[in-house]
């Protein structure tokens, strides 16, 4: 598929650890995959709605809905099983982890059943076979009449995609580059940073249909049909579910519904492209703003409470308290937040079923707590030791000294640093989009995919982030001035 697999390595590591701790389901001969779905009455499907016409979002009756070829296939499978369909949107790098950790029953996201992926998941039969193409600028049609003319040129593909692997294999004499998102590739092509973009045929057709400056040429890869087939992924050992999905796919092929689904998906693509003004998508950005604000506020509040607890433990004379606090702080500060978010959602989520938004808040709060703890520790260490001695000479206990003398003065000194942490949380919380939390970055990617516009949605989100952080900074400065006058 033409989507990035940046999260795939992290996903593999995550699954390894969850398996090590016994948190993943059994891939045994005792297969109850189909029975569990029917008993629950719900088919949970993981997808990444930023790849039209396979999957995208559109506004229907004022509500955002998932549409596309893959969504229609999932609907048919759910209908044949006699259960409700629940779409779980997330970053493409997380869809396979979702089924490996039991968060979803199947993943349908334009997945190509490669040998590498078959090592960790099972696949249905192929339900769609497309082709590989190159997008070029229309003015270069005479220059690049066929793919052979691209040898020695600048070619870009999506990171970790099938197109990336094919370009490395067949165009090793060209200058190859990769990016995470398809809209970024198109933007680079339009600005002549690259000469061609390797992309899947249906996606290329959608771009050409809605961008008069682009054209496409066949990639001419051998065994193209076999390499670009799309299938549905499920957890290892889910034979009963695979058989049921294959029956639905047979029905779809028998009635030639794939072409029908693609035609319907094309209508939604046309509708989205008909009005690409950012005002049309205001509710996307508004919902992203609300979720980003909610995550930041709750994460900072609980982060401060956790930070106070951690610093008290770290400064304690009891090693049984100091060592775990020190270890926690070092581990959290020494690992990427992306890994922490994945671990909370898929690792902890394998034990406790929690929504993506809740998991995102928990992960960001746990991360913030470690940094706040060090900020508070620095504030405490900055105080004159005479403060503690004076309090104790007045008969204050250690607890009262810390509560009424040390911490109030420390917080006054570290207020600017805490403010910076709050601002950082607002920006860094964007990483939760990888598990499907509809924050500003998640909505940004959806709007870019739906409108085929590369820059305008970015500008809108930049302005929103700036207004958020600027307003917060002014508010924090106000309280700082009040504290300095007291």
Automatic annotation (TrEMBL):
Signal peptide: 1-29
InterPro entries: AA_ABC_transptr_permease_3TM (IPR010065), ArtM/GltK/GlnP/TcyL/YhdX-like (IPR043429), Iontro_rcpt_C (IPR001320), MetI-like (IPR000515), MetI-like_sf (IPR035906), SBP_3_CS (IPR018313), Solute-binding_3/MltF_N (IPR001638)
Keyword Transmembrane helix: yes
Bilayer disposition of the protein: Multi-pass membrane protein
Residues spanning the membrane: 284-312, 342-366, 454-476
Intracellular or extracellular location(s): Cell membrane
Residue ranges of every copy of the ABC transmembrane type-1 domain listed in the record: 289-476
Acyltransferase as UniProt keyword: no
Location (main, coarse): membrane
Keywords per UniProt: Amino-acid transport, Cell membrane, Membrane, Signal, Transmembrane, Transmembrane helix, Transport
Pfam families named in the record: BPD_transp_1 (PF00528), SBP_bac_3 (PF00497)
Family: Belongs to the bacterial solute-binding protein 3 family. Belongs to the binding-protein-dependent transport system permease family. HisMQ subfamily.
Protein name as catalogued: ABC transporter substrate-binding protein/permease
């Amino acid at each position: 598929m033409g989507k990035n697999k940046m999260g795939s390595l992290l996903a593999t590591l995550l699954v390894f650890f969850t398996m090590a701790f016994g948190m993943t389901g059994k891939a045994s001969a005792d297969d109850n995959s189909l029975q569990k779905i029917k008993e629950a009455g719900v088919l949970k499907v993981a997808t990444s709605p930023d790849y039209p016409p396979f999957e995208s979002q559109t506004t229907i009756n004022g509500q955002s809905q998932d549409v596309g070829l893959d969504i229609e296939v999932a609907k048919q499978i759910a209908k044949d099983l006699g259960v409700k369909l629940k779409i779980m949107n997330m970053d493409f790098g997380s869809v396979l982890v979702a089924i490996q950790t039991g968060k979803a029953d199947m993943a349908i996201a334009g997945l190509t059943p490669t040998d590498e992926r078959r090592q960790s998941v099972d696949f249905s039969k192929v339900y769609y076979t497309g082709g590989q193409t190159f997008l070029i600028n229309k003015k270069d049609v005479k220059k690049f009449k066929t793919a052979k003319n691209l040898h020695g040129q600048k070619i870009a593909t999506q990171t970790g995609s099938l197109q990336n692997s094919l370009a490395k294999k067949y165009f090793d004499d060209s200058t190859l580059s990769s990016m995470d998102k398809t809209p970024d590739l198109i933007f680079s092509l339009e600005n002549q940073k690259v000469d061609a973009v390797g992309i899947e045929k249906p996606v290329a057709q959608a771009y050409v249909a809605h961008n008069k400056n682009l054209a496409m040429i066949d990639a001419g890869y051998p065994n193209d049909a076999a390499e670009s087939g799309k299938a549905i992924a499920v957890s290892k050992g889910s034979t009963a579910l695979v058989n049921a999905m294959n029956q639905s796919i047979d029905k779809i092929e028998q009635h030639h519904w794939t072409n029908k689904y693609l035609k319907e998906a094309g209508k939604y693509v046309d509708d989205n492209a008909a009005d690409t003004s950012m005002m049309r998508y205001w509710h996307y950005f508004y919902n992203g703003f609300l979720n980003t604000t909610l995550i930041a506020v709750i994460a900072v509040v609980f982060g401060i409470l956790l930070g106070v607890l951690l610093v008290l433990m770290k400064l304690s004379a009891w090693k049984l308290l100091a060592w775990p606090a020190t270890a926690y702080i070092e581990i959290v500060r020494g690992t990427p937040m992306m890994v922490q978010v994945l671990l909370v959602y898929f690792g902890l989520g394998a034990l406790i079923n929690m929504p993506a938004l809740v998991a995102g808040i928990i992960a960001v709060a746990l991360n913030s707590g470690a940094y706040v703890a060090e900020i508070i520790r620095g504030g405490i260490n900055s105080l004159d030791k005479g403060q503690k001695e004076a309090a104790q000479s007045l008969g204050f206990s250690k607890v009262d000294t810390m509560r009424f003398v040390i911490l109030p003065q420390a917080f006054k000194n570290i207020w600017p640093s805490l403010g910076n942490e709050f601002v950082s949380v607002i920006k860094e919380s964007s990483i939760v989009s990888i598990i499907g939390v509809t924050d500003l970055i998640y909505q940004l990617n959806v709007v870019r995919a739906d409108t085929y516009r590369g820059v305008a949605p970015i500008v809108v989100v930049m302005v929103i982030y700036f207004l958020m952080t600027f307003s917060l900074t002014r508010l924090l400065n106000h309280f700082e001035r009040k504290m300095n006058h007291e």
